[in-house]
Design goal:
There is one protein chain. The strands form three sheets. Strands 2, 3, 6, 7, 8, 9, 10 and 11 form an eight-stranded mixed β-sheet that branches. A three-stranded antiparallel β-sheet has the order 1-4-5, with no helix packed on it. A three-stranded antiparallel β-sheet has the order 12-13-14, with no helix packed on it. With 219 residues, the protein is mostly beta strands. The chain has one domain: Bromo adjacent homology (BAH) domain (SH3 type barrels, Roll).
Length: 219
């Protein structure tokens, strides 16, 4: 599957500095609201919001050829994984969309997402073997604006953990562009790695990064 340069990232979600991120876009909810009076805790306080299940983004593509112009229609759903806008010079964060909502007062469209960590985002022990397409799930979740979405990616859980010392042998689909897998979880507060549910018990100590701030929860 080719990687579209218009989205400004390579197959692993690294920002391509010579290209710009998607131009300003229009966002619209798809389908009926799931809930209309959900309480959401944001940094500015508790607000009421309306929850939705799908979002459409319309944007003009910034093609490498200035003479070429096209309009892209992208759809994102609850449960899907996405790249989120990185800081300048950084790699896109990988997240799973848990909720989509619009604040009832300001009408701001937002996401509540689950964080996935890349190996390079953590300080890991030298004995932990990792694959280029491996990520770590976590219980860390936070809110962000829908405009932070760069593009869709795919994250799959391995049914079992590879045996210690065994080289990764992965199906071709797991090493396609923007495809990732996990079988381990990372706890940013305890700074430990554990095998994900249904993959068997194992735990390794590691010096990982500490989160700044607090996960913002839907009540």
């Amino acid at each position: 599957m080719p990687v579209e340069a218009e989205e400004g990232v390579d197959e692993l979600g690294n920002l391509l500095v010579e290209l710009v991120l998607p131009a300003p876009a229009e966002y619209a909810w798809l389908g009926d609201a799931l809930l209309t009076t959900q309480e959401v805790h944001l940094e500015e306080g508790c607000v009421t919001a309306t929850l939705f299940g799908a979002l459409e983004r319309r944007r003009a593509l910034a093609h490498v050829n200035p003479a070429v112009r096209a309009l892209a229609h992208d759809m994102f759903k609850v449960g899907e994984h996405v790249f989120l806008t990185p800081e300048v010079g950084k790699t896109c964060q990988i997240a799973r969309i848990l909720h989509m909502f619009e604040t009832n007062e300001t009408k701001r469209k937002m996401l509540y997402v689950q964080r996935f960590y890349r190996p390079e985002e953590l300080q890991m022990t030298s004995t932990m073997a990792v694959h280029t397409h491996e990520v770590f799930s976590s219980a860390w979740a936070y809110t962000c604006g829908v405009e932070d979405i760069v593009c869709r990616c795919h994250v799959f859980q391995l049914p079992s953990a590879p045996e210690e010392g065994v080289t990764f042998h992965l199906p071709d689909e797991l090493t396609q562009p923007r495809h990732f897998f996990f079988f381990r979880k990372y706890d940013p507060h305890r700074q430990i790695f554990t095998i994900a549910d249904n993959s068997g018990p194992q735990e390794e100590e590691a010096d990982g990064e500490r989160e700044v701030g607090v996960g913002l929860m839907l009540s």
